[in-house]
TrEMBL record:
Transmembrane segments: none
Phylogenetic classification of the source organism: Bacteria, Bacillati, Actinomycetota, Actinomycetes, Streptosporangiales
SUPFAM superfamilies linked: Bet v1-like (SSF55961)
Listed name of the protein: SRPBCC family protein
Domain of life: Bacteria
Segments forming a coiled coil: none
Pfam families assigned: Polyketide_cyc2
Protein source organism: Bailinhaonella thermotolerans
Length: 146
C-alpha cells in the first residue's frame, strides 16, 4: 500500500493556518488545482461524514468524505469515495502543528491508498509532486503574503 507525505513550514501561527485548512469544502481558497467544491446536501463543511464534491485539473467527479476533525489537535482525516485516479481505499490526513521556534506552523498532508502495481510509482509522484507539494506551497504563499 503506497504512502505519500508532504510537508511545509508556514510563517504564520498554527491557529491561523488551521483556520484556513479546517474548512473541508474550502480547498479552492488555497489550492491552485482545485475548483470550488460543494458539500453534498448543503450541510456544514466541518461535520464528520460530510462529502465534498469537487473538480480538479483532472476533471470533475471527485468525492471525499470527512472521517474525522479535531480542532484541539488541528487535524482532519478523509477518504475518497470516487475519483478519476486509478486508486482504491484512499485515506488521507491533514495536520497542523505549532513550531516552537517563532510563531510558525508545520503542515503535513499524508495519504495511503491501494492501486495496481504498475501505476503505484506514478500515483505516488502524482500525489506528492502534483497535488500535495504545490498545494502546500500555495498555502504557504497565501498565508505569508497577508
Amino acid at each position: 500500500m503506497p504512502e505519500v507525505v508532504a510537508s511545509t513550514v508556514v510563517d504564520a501561527p498554527a491557529d491561523e493556518v488551521w483556520g484556513l485548512l479546517r474548512d473541508f469544502g474550502g480547498m479552492s481558497r488555497w489550492h491552485p488545482a482545485m475548483a470550488p467544491s460543494e458539500i453534498e446536501g448543503g450541510g456544514p463543511a466541518d461535520a464528520v461524514g460530510c462529502v465534498r464534491v469537487f473538480t480538479t485539473v483532472l476533471g470533475p467527479g471527485h468525492r471525499d468524505r470527512l472521517t474525522a476533525l479535531d480542532d484541539r489537535e488541528r487535524t482532519y482525516a478523509y477518504t475518497s469515495e470516487s475519483t478519476r485516479m486509478p486508486i482504491r481505499d484512499y485515506r488521507a490526513r491533514v495536520r497542523v502543528l505549532p513550531v516552537t521556534e517563532g510563531d510558525r506552523a508545520f503542515v503535513e498532508w499524508s495519504a495511503r491508498f491501494d492501486c495496481d502495481a504498475d501505476v503505484a510509482e506514478k500515483m505516488v509522484v502524482t500525489f506528492r509532486d502534483i497535488i500535495f507539494a504545490p498545494g502546500l506551497a500555495a498555502l504557504r504563499k497565501r498565508l505569508e503574503s497577508r
